[in-house]
Automatic annotation (TrEMBL):
Primary localization class, coarse: membrane
PROSITE patterns (alphabetical): NA_SOLUT_SYMP_2, NA_SOLUT_SYMP_3
Pfam families per UniProt: SSF
Organism: Amycolatopsis pretoriensis
GO cellular component, one term: plasma membrane
A GO MF label: transmembrane transporter activity
Protein name per its UniProtKB record: Solute:Na+ symporter, SSS family
Organismal lineage: Bacteria, Bacillati, Actinomycetota, Actinomycetes, Pseudonocardiales
Transmembrane segments: 6-23, 44-66, 72-95, 116-144, 150-172, 184-204, 224-242, 263-283, 308-332, 353-369, 375-397, 404-425, 431-449
Length: 481
């Protein structure tokens, strides 16, 4: 394992070095939170791919392939479709608005007083996403160093927190580019062809496996639909994804780079399912499908190469964890603390402190919780059920009002929570009831209340056109939530 240790050590040193370099670039709030809105096509596409393809897409995608065969690709495919739709329909508008959070967009469109509710929901979602990504570090460090879970979480989480605190989005962007390259080489260029070849190619796999492993629907049609509802819609409105959109230098870069990223995600999803299928062919009696990724890497790859592929998996986890952490920090400072009047100190320093505190909180939660899948499911369901209608309405329906948006958020969130209690956290029904209630209430209340003031809509339209109206926006914002 000496060669593997060397590769991982170089990888970790490189991430910390890049994080330190990012400290020199993060001089303003814009630098720290959205990389100065200066990313070109390659950096934008690479970082977008890195943030959405985390441990669940890599280790989890192989696990689903091991269990269901080719049909295991649908989780990651639903993520890729979400990225494609986001950039085909929303990205140009979002870049022109020049905001920092989803809540700021809602306040701008509806005239204020909505970001407190959306901020609470988004804060819970981004924190739990950080926790689940941090928890995944234990898998890699257990394989490499036989560390207990808490130690692996502490090591991986500390690295992410350190480079995120230092340079904010600039450090995260630079590390994500390195992680994107490592991930592409390790998973797509090395592990995928080695796994398929070792399993005897497609003909060898088809001879040894049941035909269901080559069916696109063996995972279940209801599961596939639920993946699209939760993850595709979730990616359309998540703060961690929007914050990456805000980093693009131009609307055109966001659109083309995002569509490229979406296609990459589709390829990555198929690759993970095929690696899992090959793993089932080679090692059909694993005690747990969760071990499929680690097993195929450990048994098939030579020293050094194995370290590179494990670094690729670590890259996937770190990119998602850092993206979720900076999103949680931004929501905390922009949507929550600012509404309470807590604005002491410089903006960059305030965001660094928030990132540090939230990062340590996420590490602490990950250490004491064995399985946070249910918590993440709750967060995604509330995010989509509570916020999707108000956000889509803000972007595409001028008749939507602040009262309608506020009521829809409350109705959707309450409905999701109520049906989780009635039907269970794992049930598919809460998200559908939440979306239905949110839509009905949004339409009814918006039609029953006065239209949004022309001055607000005029400011919104001008911001969508790319005009700088930040002074007017500040004058229009309410002083309290």
């Amino acid at each position: 394992m000496t060669g593997d240790y060397a590769v991982i050590a170089l990888y970790i040193a490189g991430m910390l070095g890049v994080g330190w370099y990012g400290l020199r670039l993060a001089k303003t709030k814009s630098d720290y939170l959205v990389a100065g809105r200066r990313l070109g096509w390659f950096m934008y596409s690479g970082t977008m791919s890195a943030v959405v393809l985390g441990g669940a897409s890599t280790v989890g995608g192989v696990k689903l392939g091991y269990t269901y065969g080719i049909s295991g690709m649908w989780l990651v495919v639903s993520i890729g479709v979400g990225i494609l739709v986001l950039h085909a329909l929303f990205a140009r508008r979002l870049v022109r608005l020049k905001v920092y959070t989803v809540g700021e967009m809602l306040d701008l469109r509806y005239g204020g007083r909505t970001s407190a509710v959306s901020g609470v929901v988004m804060w819970g979602y981004t924190l739990m996403l950080t926790v689940t990504s941090t928890l995944a570090f234990a898998t890699i460090f257990k394989v490499l160093f036989d560390l207990p879970n808490w130690a692996g979480i502490a090591v991986g989480g500390s690295i992410v927190v350190l480079y995120s605190v230092l340079g904010g989005m600039w450090s995260i962007t630079l590390t994500d580019i390195a992680q994107f390259v490592i991930k592409t080489i390790g998973i797509l260029a090395i592990l995928l062809p080695v796994a398929i070849s070792s399993a005897g190619g497609f003909s060898g796999m088809s001879e040894k496996l049941d035909a269901s492993f080559f069916s696109f629907t063996s995972i279940g049609t209801d599961t596939i639909i639920t993946y699209f509802v939760i993850y595709t819609f979730g990616l359309l409105i998540g703060q961690d994804i929007w914050q990456r959109v805000f980093t693009a230098r131009t609307p055109a870069i966001a659109t083309s780079g995002g569509i490229t990223s979406g296609v990459y995600c589709l390829v990555y999803g198929l690759a993970g399912a095929l690696i899992g299928t090959a793993a089932h062919t080679l090692y059909p009696d694993l005690a747990s499908a969760q071990d499929a990724f680690a097993t195929i890497v450990e048994r098939l790859l030579p020293t050094g190469v194995r370290g590179l592929v494990l670094a690729a998996a670590l890259s996937a986890m770190m990119s998602t964890a850092s993206g979720a952490l900076i999103a949680c920090s931004t929501t905390t400072t922009s949507d929550l603390l600012s509404k309470l009047g807590l604005k002491k100190g410089g903006e960059v320093s305030r965001n660094r402190i928030a990132t540090l505190v939230l990062g340590l909180l996420a590490i602490g939660i990950a250490m004491v919780v064995d399985d946070v899948v249910n918590a993440l499911t709750i967060a995604y369901d509330i995010l989509v059920g509570g916020l999707l209608v108000a956000i889509v309405g803000a972007l595409f329906w001028k008749r939507g009002t602040r009262q309608g948006a506020y009521a829809s958020m409350v109705a959707g969130t309450v409905s999701v929570i109520a049906f989780m209690i009635i039907d269970g956290v794992d049930a598919n029904t809460p998200i559908y009831w939440g979306l239905g209630a949110s839509l009905v209430v949004y339409l009814a209340v918006s039609f029953a209340t006065p239209r949004t003031a022309d001055s607000i809509l005029s400011l919104w339209t001008r911001r969508l056109a790319g005009e700088d109206t930040t002074t007017e926006t500040r004058e229009q914002e309410p002083t309290s939530a």
